[in-house]
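job 3f2a | input accepted
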Amino acid sequence: MKSPRDSKIRLTILSIVKEFFEKNQAGLLYICETGDGMQKMRNRLFKYWFSIYEESDDYYFLPMTIFDEENNENYAALIIRYDNPQFREIVREFTTTINLLNSKP
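job 3f2a | predicted structure (105 res):
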């Protein structure tokens, strides 16, 4: 099994992100898979990968934690280009949604 720090995996994922933004004027939402309890590690790894991405200055990266009904941590993030014409609206909607999910009774 390849190491999660494998540079080929990192480059592939970041290439997918770059291609997404070349073809779409949108925000990208990612949610870490939770089936095996490794979501915290996945979140930390993606944050690291994105921090060393050479074009990261073009993007706003907003990681958030969502707590489920058993108070388990789930990780999501919004990635959006700073030059997106709907930047403020998308960031506001994402933040509002996360806050709503975390304030459920």
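job 3f2a | The chain has a mean pLDDT of 89.
job 3f2a | closed
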